[in-house]
Amino acid sequence: MKNNTKTALILVIPILLFFVLVVPYKYANQEIIVDWLGCGCPQIDEAGNLQPNNFNANDFTRLFWAVVTVIATVVSVFLSKRISKDKLFLRMIYIISVFAVSVAISYMFVQSMLWC
User: 54 partner at 20 to 30 Å CA-CA among 2, 33, 72, 91?
Assistant: First the structure.
C-alpha cells in the first residue's frame, strides 16, 4: 500500500509543475515581460492607424505554457515506466491524461494572464 501511494504521488509530478511555476511566472509577467515585450493591446499611431503588435507578452505567455505542457508530457513518458511493463494500455492512458490535463491547465492559465 505504501509503495502504491508513493508511486501515485510521483506520477502527479508533471501536473504539480504547473502549480509550482504559476506564481513566479505571474510575477515575471507583470514586472518584466510586459515592460519588455508590450502588453498586446492594440496600438494606434497619431494618424489613427492600427500599428502591428508582432510579438508581445500574450504571445510569450502562450509560448511559455506550451513549453511547460511539452515538458510535463515528456516527463510523464519517463514516469510511466513506474507503471508495470505489462500494462502498456495504462501507461498510454496516463501519458494521454497528463497531456490533456496539461493542455487544459495551460489554457486556463493563459486566459487568466492575457493583457487587454
Answer: 72
What is the residue extent of each domain of the chain?
Answer: 2-113
Burial of 77 (0-12, 13-18, 19+ CB in 10 A): middle
pTM of the predicted structure, to 2 decimals: 0.86
User: What Å distances lie between residue 36 and 17, 40, 51, 64, 101, CA to CA?
Assistant: 25, 11, 17, 15, 30
pLDDT block averages, 10 residues each, the chain of length 116: 78 94 95 88 77 86 97 95 86 96 97 87
